[in-house]
């Protein structure tokens, strides 16, 4: 990773097969991932994706300290979110990226996004 690029592991599970000493990680944000109860409820079921995101967004809104390192790093440069799921479309890093991008655009966007997915 070059310059101001930072990588963060998001979630409480480390990806199998990746040696921790071979990946240049800024921080492992276990608390930045979904709660254990939410992760287990979701079970990587694409049918639950919309509701998962809504619930995860609510958790992230309350958990300012968990997302703060990523937001600070993103303000200075590129951020890479490392996740453990094999599903590249339906995982907490994808949802977290969407949440953070919405926050950068303004809190109203985040609120609309959360409510839109809750209704879906």
What does this structure look like?
The chain is mostly helical and 120 residues long. Helix content is 51%, strand content 10%. The protein has helices spanning 36-42, 49-62, 64-76, 92-105, 107-119; strands at residues 6-10, 27-29, 79-82. A three-stranded parallel beta sheet has the order 2-1-3, covered by helices on one side. Mean pLDDT is 76; it is low at 108-120.
Care to count the β-strands?
3
Number of helices: 5
* Residue windows where pLDDT falls under 50 for at least 5 positions: 108-120
Task: Estimate what percentage of residues fall within beta strands.
Answer: 5-15%
Order of helices and strands: EEHHHEHH
Strand arrangement across the biggest beta sheet: 2-1-3
User: What is the distance, rounded to the nearest whole angstrom, between the alpha carbons of the first and last residues?
Assistant: 38 Å
Radius of gyration: 14 Å
**What is the overall shape?**
globular
Portion of residues within helices: 40-55%
> How is the main sheet built?
3 strands, parallel
Q: Residue-averaged pLDDT, rounded?
A: 76
Structural class: mainly alpha
């Amino acid at each position: 990773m070059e310059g101001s690029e930072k990588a963060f592991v998001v979630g409480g599970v480390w990806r199998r097969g990746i040696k921790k000493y071979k990946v240049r990680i800024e921080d492992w944000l276990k608390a930045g991932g979904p709660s254990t109860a939410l992760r287990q409820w979701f079970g990587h079921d694409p049918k639950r994706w919309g509701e998962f995101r809504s619930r995860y967004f609510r958790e992230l809104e309350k958990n300012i300290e968990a997302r703060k390192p990523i937001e600070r790093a993103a303000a200075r440069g590129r951020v890479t979110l490392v996740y453990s799921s094999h599903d590249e479309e339906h995982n907490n890093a994808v949802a977290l990226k969407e949440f953070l991008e919405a926050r950068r655009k303004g809190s109203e966007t985040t609120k609309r996004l959360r409510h839109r997915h809750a209704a879906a």
